[in-house]
Amino acid sequence: MDLLEYQGKQFFARYGIPVSDGEAVTTVDDAVAVADRIGYPVVVKAQVHVGGRGKAGGVKLADDADAVREHAGNILGLDIKGHVVRTIWIEVASDIAEEYYASFTLDRSAKKHLGMLSAEGGVEIETVAEENPDAIAKIWIDPVDGLSEADARDWVERANLNPDATEGAVDILRKLYTAYTEGDADLTEINPLILKPTGEVHALDAKVTLDGNSTFRHEDYSEYEQTQVRDEREEDAHSKGLQYVGLDGYVGVIANGAGLAMSTVDIVNQVGGKPANFLDIGGGANAEVMAGALEVINNDPKVKAIFINIFGGITKGDEVANGIVTALERVDIDAPIVIRIDGTNAAEGREILSRHESASLISKPTMVEAAETVVALAKERGGQ
Ligand code: GDP
Ligand code: MN
């Protein structure tokens, strides 16, 4: 779950990270009222799930109520990279001496958390990584050990921040690490982390991605659910209770179990195709679930062929085959479907499918054969 900046700042504040006082509003009048209350100058900031708002005109300083009125009016309704601004955040403006970058993410291959810190903040970190990679100080943190004060201090020194920022940065980075781990975040990023002329270090922006699977531990995270932006396909799948991730290719993928769904995505790539999605229908592959999955895939105009990959365990092959046949009676599918059923009652399942086999419903006994067939069909139909 991606948080908006103001939600990220409220999240940070809970862990003691200094952020500016402010309030989120949706109208120009409310923006002025908040600015009058918190005191000028203020910053008017677009709240959208995308970075680079400053460059797009979505972050403006305002010295008085007239300026707030003007900027709030311009920013509300502004389209920033396809995201229309509906909410703005008004906060007390800060004086900036220096802008830094700080973040924590998971480095899966290292099996450790990765902290990144740079004296070159305010700009996109990808640009720094490309043009001046040495300007990013990295630290790999064993989740069991955590981030000690000594390690944080050494890390800050390697990043060559202004020495005035050392104490404040060490403190914030340790709090940011706590927020990242205890808050079950996949990403916590501050860009810019600023040093004020008065010597305080402060989070001027907040980018937070929370692990959606951790909500059982954090009841309050349900409020973030409402501000998530999903593409239409994801919205549709989500409402049907399916585990779905939209991708850019042209082969629709349906599999049972996240592991098999990932392997299916891999094998489509391996035989030279491009998956349009990841879709795990889970254990109960009945007609209802299958019809829902097929509807979601069918509504994606990029899909040129569909690969249904089922390994029967507790779910039986014949039940899945019946589910597919029934689902196809309910959903009008344009794209040809290639099915591979293996595992429990696979033979019975294939037997059922064979009675319905046609040019647009093909059963293949192995994953590789099915993948090759579906990719060839998709390409014939213009998939690229
Ligand atoms: P982003 O462009 O979406 O990353 O939005 P940010 O919140 O990072 O703001 C972009 C830039 O606006 C920052 O890097 C700052 O240079 C500037 N900015 C934001 N807030 C303030 C503020 O309170 N005071 C000043 N002087 N500049 C600010
Ligand atoms: Mn930023």
Explain this structure to me?
With 384 residues, this protein is an alpha+beta fold. The chain folds into three domains: 21-92, Dna Ligase, domain 1, CATH 3.30.1490; 98-222, ATP-grasp fold, B domain (D-amino Acid Aminotransferase, Chain A, domain 1), CATH 3.30.470; 232-380, Rossmann fold (3-Layer(aba) Sandwich), CATH 3.40.50.261. 36% of the residues lie in helices and 24% in strands. The chain is built from 13 helices and 18 strands. The chain has helices spanning 5-14, 28-38, 65-75, 125-131, 149-158, 166-182, 222-225, 232-239, 258-270, 287-298, 317-330, 346-354, 367-380; strands spanning 22-25, 42-46, 59-62, 79-80, 83-84, 88-92, 98-107, 112-118, 136-141, 185-195, 201-203, 207-210, 243-246, 251-255, 277-280, 305-312, 337-343, 361-363. Strands 7, 8, 9, 10, 11 and 12 form a six-stranded antiparallel sheet that branches. Strands 1-6-2-3 form a four-stranded antiparallel sheet, covered by helices on one side. It has a four-stranded parallel sheet with strand order 14-16-17-18, with helices on both faces. Helix 12 links the parallel strand 17 and strand 18 (361-363). Helix 8 (232-239) packs antiparallel against helix 10. The structure holds guanosine-5'-diphosphate (GDP) and manganese (II) ion. Manganese (II) ion is lined by residues 191, 205. Guanosine-5'-diphosphate is lined by residues 43, 51-54, 59, 61, 93-94, 96, 99, 122, 191-192, 204-205.
